[in-house]
Write the structure tokens for this entry.
Amino acid sequence: MAGRHFLQIPGPTPIPDRLLRAMHRASEDHRSSAFPTLTRSILSRLPHVVHQTNGEHFVFPSSGTGMWEAALVNTQQPGARLLAVRFGQFSHLFIQTARNLGYHVDVIETPWGESAPVDQIEAALAADTAHEIQGVLLVHNETATGVTNDVGAVRAAMDRAKHPALLYIDGVSSIASLDFQFDAWGVDCSIAGSQKGFMLPAGLGILGMSEKALARVATVTTPRSYFDLRPMRDQNARGYFPYTPALSLLFGLDDALTMLLDEGMDAVAARHRRMAVGVRAAVKAWGLHECAKRPEIASNTLTAVVMPEGQDASRVIDIAFKRYDVSLGAGLGELAGKVFRIGHLGDTNALTLAGALSGVEMALVDAGVPITLGAGVGAALQTWRVAP
Amino acid sequence: MAGRHFLQIPGPTPIPDRLLRAMHRASEDHRSSAFPTLTRSILSRLPHVVHQTNGEHFVFPSSGTGMWEAALVNTQQPGARLLAVRFGQFSHLFIQTARNLGYHVDVIETPWGESAPVDQIEAALAADTAHEIQGVLLVHNETATGVTNDVGAVRAAMDRAKHPALLYIDGVSSIASLDFQFDAWGVDCSIAGSQKGFMLPAGLGILGMSEKALARVATVTTPRSYFDLRPMRDQNARGYFPYTPALSLLFGLDDALTMLLDEGMDAVAARHRRMAVGVRAAVKAWGLHECAKRPEIASNTLTAVVMPEGQDASRVIDIAFKRYDVSLGAGLGELAGKVFRIGHLGDTNALTLAGALSGVEMALVDAGVPITLGAGVGAALQTWRVAP
Amino acid sequence: MAGRHFLQIPGPTPIPDRLLRAMHRASEDHRSSAFPTLTRSILSRLPHVVHQTNGEHFVFPSSGTGMWEAALVNTQQPGARLLAVRFGQFSHLFIQTARNLGYHVDVIETPWGESAPVDQIEAALAADTAHEIQGVLLVHNETATGVTNDVGAVRAAMDRAKHPALLYIDGVSSIASLDFQFDAWGVDCSIAGSQKGFMLPAGLGILGMSEKALARVATVTTPRSYFDLRPMRDQNARGYFPYTPALSLLFGLDDALTMLLDEGMDAVAARHRRMAVGVRAAVKAWGLHECAKRPEIASNTLTAVVMPEGQDASRVIDIAFKRYDVSLGAGLGELAGKVFRIGHLGDTNALTLAGALSGVEMALVDAGVPITLGAGVGAALQTWRVAP
Amino acid sequence: MAGRHFLQIPGPTPIPDRLLRAMHRASEDHRSSAFPTLTRSILSRLPHVVHQTNGEHFVFPSSGTGMWEAALVNTQQPGARLLAVRFGQFSHLFIQTARNLGYHVDVIETPWGESAPVDQIEAALAADTAHEIQGVLLVHNETATGVTNDVGAVRAAMDRAKHPALLYIDGVSSIASLDFQFDAWGVDCSIAGSQKGFMLPAGLGILGMSEKALARVATVTTPRSYFDLRPMRDQNARGYFPYTPALSLLFGLDDALTMLLDEGMDAVAARHRRMAVGVRAAVKAWGLHECAKRPEIASNTLTAVVMPEGQDASRVIDIAFKRYDVSLGAGLGELAGKVFRIGHLGDTNALTLAGALSGVEMALVDAGVPITLGAGVGAALQTWRVAP
């Protein structure tokens, strides 16, 4: 097919041409005297993306999900007890990862489409007077449902409970897109990947650690090698990595940081909000519902759209991909077939989303969902028009 | 601004990523024993794009307009008399070029927005019983007005008038997008550039010559050097060029030919027709008019949209560019300020055009043109929905 | 500095322009119906690189060293006993990784510069009549010393000892460059990375597993998540990955496989042998010694050159990098300061190596090593001249 | 063949990766309000490359040789009389171009390998008391023979003869590599292309014009269109071009100017001198002669090497290309088969040239020329060693 494909899944996101160029570079010697300049440029600027002054950032050749493991094995003893909320497929997988690694996880089950119940978290922690719970695992932005949690409120609950557990925040689909306050929210481990807000291909895991979390690294005896932060910290301090780094992705990350910080993280968040408002207006104009059960928890990086009863979302996704050159995200886990997901994060703009919404409209009509072509796009354009 | 710019002018057109990659190559020795493979791959396949078996094709480091000069100085004696139709800015410039080179041009003036009047051409040729007129200059697709001529009808008129003049067809905005029948239409010189249907950056002039035209090259004494076809033909025959060729663009052209011929020129033309139908439906839904005065002459590669009386098209173009990240073509010559032009040729698709139309809609509303947001896009989507 | 840098370390190796282009691509939906084509193209062809018909191959977003961990945690119970030979920095790190993961490793200490002592391996296995040793860890090509082991001989020793231990071969600096016979050598786990013979940036771990090794995956209870082969195998079988794959590197790997298999693995090995012969001739002409103690164990992918007594290799490396635009590998571990290493693997050729040797010559002279400029290069050219 | 090809012809020259990246960009609207920034960045900085404050610079989609025509048709009336020196193939072609365009050229014939005879130029001008000669055509650096002229001396001769002719300098293989003093030498038209010192693909002609030359543009009546400077100047003044510019090459040129001016033109010239000294040392060590008959006229951008009597240079070039992956320039015109040419201009360095010289050495030996392998390279390294 001629023309560009519209990659409108919640990640990987479209890679700006500028970053593709930044990665199109000859290899270099990762042990040369010139190399630390790159390492330091990246590691010194990553904290700015999440407003972190407390602690350090690390980059691994890994998927974002690898950082779940990196965060846990470096800070928790074998068999430690953790608390988590399950409210979507990615919170589910975070829990599974912890269990696969031998941790004991207390799970607060929450309906998918809802946000994490702060009161239940607080209650669980308050009840744990012996402080057996060593960590709280929370997905900031649940990519399966399009729901964003209020991490600050969770931190406040922890503080009210006077509970010393570490706070692990999966920000894979929020960091570098949504407002993320590492310091203010008292985050101990922030988890991200290169392929969403950072606008790069997948392949880099990005891990923020507070001083409190870092203090555990030396004492924890969990067997570990690849994700062991001890040699990583040693080498990073000198500007190097303990094994050959994924250099092309680092070149890209370095320039992605320049793009993000030049724009400013507040502007980045505002831009994502603006894009999301338009997409939500389109969903409403189609007469469909979002998976997010309340407007105030709706994510600004993706929207999960619930199909009318009896309609199969997979068919819409398949038609959209094959006939109209747009990729949409499928429903995952218990939402399989029930929702399709529109990503609106990273390097995109109103016209690209208008094109994508146009593809969704044609696919919906083809699938037999009775909407008026142009209605959703028009509603979105109404929000995207720039006030004169 | 984040996201992709929508380049929706009638050329240069968006360059497919594949062609950008094809041009991203180390230089090579244009005199090496391996080089003729590339030359031959290009020169042997260019004729297929225009259904040419009669004659040869040539490629110059030049803009497309340079081929106006190349065609004339290689086939017409100084001061020769030519016949041309003026019905837009590019037919005007073709005439000016001929005059700048010292030719005498009889001009049939035609309202802009109309196509070339075949009957007047026939009459002029029939009246020229002495056969003083040496050539007929015709722009196939007038990029300023969005009007396509029926070249076959012009050829039929020439045949009816039994006139031996050479037929020069500017196909800059038609070749490799619209159906072009070099043999069937009895074209003597076809003129194209790399930056429209060929989907490349500007920088290559592409010239097709019939045997009849080629026979003139050796005998014509017009002073010429850069565009002289004699050394070009000599060198091409051996697989080389008389001076260093624009190699990166040749790498691109070679792959563009593969893309076009793999798709098939009939499919390419059908695809452009389909895109154009949608854009015209949008214009109609906006309640606006096309510059092309009759549906049957409306171009499938671009649409010039006439602004309502008293409204300035430049303002719409400026708003679209600055606020919504879409480039539109301006009105040229006598149409300046009166029309904006939407390019829909080359590497594009329905969703990209839906995005561009969305940008036009917002810009129109911002400029005070009372349209309903989504109306044009919806009308276009109606035509683009794939019949199940 | 103008001109190209000469990256002559033993990895990462120079990335061919073709592979840089292959990676310069828009992102894609890794869950689309079209995606399995890529997965299968890679996973079905990786075995050909190592002549494997027994078992499967896997690709992780990881460094090559991550595959040490992946191989072990998927096939060995916590605390299992393993046998390894230490004869250089990378065999040392392989042992360290196993110990970090909680395994018990019996180590056969061998002088650096020597190859693994097959007789001692055989003796150790023969003495283990209870078959407590669960695995033999061997680095095929020790990147620190430029020594290649005879894996077939090790396999023969294991067979003679009738020992059932799994055979783990680190082929990071040999696979895709040197002859590697997965089936014939009875390898159970082959370990590679993208940044050496595969000519790509680092970022992909490549793991081959025999059926015998795969049979262990389901039964072993070692806690694991990121490197767990169970979900990887499940997803791979359907053409997908359990988490977002490092797509740009996969695009590169797919084309690297085409390059390698089009050339033929025998031709690839022969080409590396030819390059190595020239470099060794240069070292001899300089009057210097290789770290490899015997010609028959000298590696065809890199040469570690021993500095004259009292001379510091770091100085040569530093001068070469800063004055002459060539990167050389440093001595590692106990060889620090004593050797410099010249990589001659991956996408290189005689003239590139001649340029690199020229840089080495100038750096040696600058550092006070009394060689004749041109002597080493001339000796190398003597071997590289093509027999007429 | 694996590894990089060594492109060691006197142009096109190797394109730095940075410039390939700069050209790998989406198309843009060349009529947008943002476009003039690019035009001005280029046109304001081109004069700095040749130390020009007198006049303006222009860029055409054209080969460098197109600028011969552009310079002449914009400044000389039809049939004007010109004076030129023929001392190699490119001076020959410059003369031919002028004659093809209808000019009358007085030619001072000079042995190939010699420089232009300043005394004969002076004598010819002095004898032209009626000032019939309108222009002096001179190739600064004769790419066929590797000879550089002293343009300042020619200007002094013109001044001594008090002759008002315009001075046309072909700097295709000198500008942006060798010292070029537009103002100080009183140049009226400087002629260059993108594919040599500017390190880009061919496709851009670069023309410098003095005020005196520009004054002729409006008055000269020579028929012209493509190369007509009148619309070019008009459009350039507003930041645009009269026809679609070769945008990808302009992106490249803009960044090439940054590279050159950041390095500084004096440093660029010094770097070329250093590279040339090494190559000449190699030629001497081989016992061969340069085509340039005197050391003081030997070019710093290329060296034409004369084959021993009875030996065919084409064979060396063919062997070098096919066996050793290095492209050398052939002998042109009367030097065909007698010389091969080594380009050492643009983005190259000592190690690259050492590699190329190594290829030449092997090819020479293969062709039966009795040289010692390594002798030339060693002699070059002697000159390239950095004084401590």
In short: Chain D touches chain A at residues 17, 21, 24-26 (CB under 8 Å). The first helix of chain D runs from residue 17 to 23. Chain D has a mean pLDDT of 97. The radius of gyration of chain D is 21 Å.
